[in-house]
Design brief:
With about 375 residues, this protein is mainly α. It contains 17 helices and no strands. Helix content is about 80%, strand content about 0%.
Length: about 375
């Protein structure tokens, strides 16, 4: 099976998953009531919401640039880190791509900035991973806080999220799980000892000549978190980003009048946002379906919101962000003088081209 075929099948599967989850999320919901509620929303809050979204991603782009500036080739003056505007443009293009090809947005984001700065794909992709690590760390800490904030509703939280997961894991025999881990460990050990250490083998040759330089470049990107001279900036910007995210989650409640109708506070919005973020992590296009399902279940079972109001909130939040990301991403692409065809080719070919250039650089 060719890489193109696998890519197409993966995209089809992600859209099917989104469709199934969206059906489950909206099953039994009166869509006419949802539409009426959307028409009656107070859209005077829409402009501040858009401003907050863009500001949060502008700060994220600045944080990303701080990481890029810690790359060895940038610190040495060999490469320029590019402007915050270039990082913002690449970031928004990546978000746009995620709605068409889940998880490919990170590659598109990296490839776009690589083309503009000349920095190796592996190095920049390493900084993208660090960017995500920072988010995962905050998300993990945030979920701990959710457990504290919703401790009085733990039984419901357990039946909705924890129990289904433990039930599925419990169906896997412990010995079988241990055997799988041991087999994987043995295979990794054999490959490392018998193949990678033998430069005469084809795989060993590929590792030493092609993969190793990429891995080294990727590693330098990961280490930017440690090497960065602006750690305070990284910390402060991360905190500000998540404060803005809470505001992004709470404003739609105000727009729909749900903050007063259901007594939803900013702290409640914090919990709802974090639980909804789990849905975004599922590989569906832009969190379509998965975000709706988890957010609606959270609002209905944990906060006593009726299904129609919960669905209205989920649809408003997801649709507004999708439209904004696609429009801004498309504008950024046009301003770069590029096109969807060029972006697609750049995204698919950048890793391979980067391997070649990084291998050449490592030999010089």
């Amino acid at each position: 099976m060719s890489p193109r075929t696998r890519s197409i099948l993966a995209q089809v599967a992600s859209f099917l998953l989104a469709g199934v989850l969206l059906y489950l999320a909206l099953r039994g919901v009166d869509l006419r009531t949802v539409l009426t509620a959307l028409k009656g929303a107070d859209y005077t809050w829409l402009l501040p919401l858009v401003a907050i979204v863009l500001l949060s991603h502008l700060i994220r782009a600045w944080r990303w640039r701080v990481l890029i500036k810690a790359l060895p080739e940038v610190e040495s003056g060999e490469r320029e880190p590019g402007s915050t505007g270039a990082a913002f443009s690449s970031l928004m293009i990546g978000y746009m791509v995620n709605y068409a090809a889940p998880r490919l947005g990170e590659v598109a984001r990296t490839a776009t900035l690589t083309a503009r700065t000349g920095i190796g794909f592996g190095s920049i992709f390493g900084t993208v991973v660090v960017d995500r690590i920072l988010d995962v760390a905050v998300l993990a800490l945030g979920l701990v806080s959710v457990g504290y904030l919703l401790i009085d509703r733990f039984s419901t939280l357990n039946s909705l999220f924890i129990e289904p997961l433990t039930t599925q894991l419990g169906r896997i025999p412990a010995l079988a799980l241990l055997a799988v881990i041991v087999v994987i460990g043995v295979l990794v050990f054999l490959v490392y000892r018998q193949v990678l250490h033998r430069s005469s083998s084809s795989i060993g040759s590929f590792w030493s000549e092609r993969a190793a330089p990429i891995f080294a470049s990727f590693k330098s990107g990961i280490l930017t978190l440690i090497r960065s001279k602006n750690r305070v900036g990284l910390l402060v910007s991360t905190v500000v980003i998540w404060i803005l995210y809470v505001m992004m989650a709470h404003l739609p409640f105000i727009m729909l009048g749900m903050d007063q109708a259901f007594q939803i506070s900013v702290l409640d919005s914090w919990s709802i946002m974090l639980l909804g973020a789990i849905g975004v992590a599922i590989p569906s296009p832009g969190g379509t379906g998965s975000y709706h399902y988890i957010t609606i279940q959270t609002l209905v079972f944990l906060f006593g919101v009726d299904s129609e109001s919960a669905a209205t909130y989920a649809v408003l939040v997801h649709a507004s962000q999708m439209v904004l990301y696609v429009v801004v991403g498309a504008v950024c692409l046009i301003l770069q003088g590029s096109s969807v065809r060029v972006l697609r080719a750049r995204t698919m070919q950048a890793p391979e081209r980067s391997r070649t250039s990084e291998y050449t650089d490592s030999q010089s």
